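Entry under discussion copied across for reference:
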Amino acid sequence: MRKVLVLEDEDSIRSFVVLNLQRAGYQTVEAASGEDALELMKQNPDIRLTLLDVMLPGIDGFEVCRRIRASGKKVGIIMLTARSQEMDKVTGLMTGADDYVTKPFSPAELTARVDALYRRIGDGTDTTPPRSGELSSPPFRLNTRNRTLEKNGQRIKLTQVEYTVMKLLMENPGKALSREEILEAVWGRDYYGEVKIVDVNIRRLRLKVEDDPTTPTYITTVWGYGYKWEA
């Protein structure tokens, strides 16, 4: 059973989300506070995806997201925000979220975004690994069997989406990939969101893989087009 945690303090919105996820075939775990959500994550280690409301009393959605990522759990995270300011979206993504949905949203949009992320994280395995099970681009080594990245032998923590972006880049060394190509390859052609999610994930990756993220040498920008992996 595909299990999703829904963190939302407004009962009516949470019920709406839960009802539509259950209709789409998901098993749901409900939380009304950040504290409850973190405790339920411990009690339900089989949760593979979370929907986190941003605006909460006490521990907010951003902090829940940070703590989930700090725990190392391979869980998909979608932020729910009623605020339209760009900084809220970027903050959510930079704290480790995979996607965001702005309220109000339709049942079709919500389930499509959940379905798309669930397909990407899957069961934690890659359906089309290269025969060697490894991509090497010194000083980096990407293991496609256990979905891990090392730099100079040191493990770098990646979210599932960051891993997929990194894999796409390393599979295409020296090739300029447009933002639209990256979006379709990683998020899927049925993705409802905006192409800027690519830029935010590239920013997150640079913070993790570059010697100096302000002057990237591995993930370079192709101005007005996209990005390129410099082998």
